[in-house]
Amino acid sequence: MKKQNNAENTDKKEKKYTSLKVSIISFAILSIISIPLWILLARYFDLGKLAKGVSSVSTSQDTEIDDTGSIIFENKMLTIINREIQYSNDTNECDDIACITYKDEGDNKYTYSVTASSTSEGGYILYTISYNHIICSSDKMIDQYMNEITLEEIENYGFTLSHSPNLYQLSSGSNKRIYTSIVDGIQTISGVYSDGNEFYIYQNHVTESPNSAFNEPAEQIIKQNSILKDYYSYKTRSI
Q1: What is the pTM of this model?
Q2: SS in 3 state form for the chain?
């Protein structure tokens, strides 16, 4: 009887040992299997992050590429106006375009005006240069023509250059970039105000009511796709 009990105890110990051994082996097998799965998951999430990063970089690069033309266009307009300011023996230099407008005179001739600001103590001085009777071929828009014209070619056109004696302040928001001056209750504004996909251009615009200036007719409204529309989109977007 005692021998039978010993045999049963030995059998139970062997079963426990076998169960433990099976559990350990099973755990080891599962661990071995799960390691590649964890690696795959880690790679999956890393690739996801990388994809997002690439997308962000691409978007950033696309925006930069889209704005390059507008930046080159602005620099050219600044070169044009600063050259004439220098020739007039003025020591100021403009570093920002407030606005650009054009007027169709008929027979493919245009008046083209650029208003730009020069930093001064306590504010900004605005300069405006206007070229008259610019001949533009019928297959080009005036802003495209001015973007392509050389400094030598533009000398063939007469122009007027003026500046305001008043100091201006620059105000900007999500849909505007405006230079404002108030003297004796009269406000003068120059800049761009956007409303949806349209850009309202105010150039040396005089108003007696500062709060309702944007309800008054603008000097020009840019609607159609053009170099100027891209440029004004860049100016309001880069605030």
Answers
A1: 0.72
A2: CHHHHHHHHHHHHHHHHHHHHHHHHHHHHHHHHHHHHHHHHHHHHHHHHHHHHHHHHHHHHHHHHHHHHHHHHHHHHHHHHHHHHHHCCCCCCCCEEEEEEEEEEECCEEEEEEEEEEEECCEEEEEEEEEEEEECCCCCCHHHHHHHCCHHHHCCCCEEEEECCCCEEEEECCCEEEEEEEECCEEEEEEEEEECCEEEEEEEEEECCHHHHHHCCCCEEECCCCHHHHHHHHHHHCC
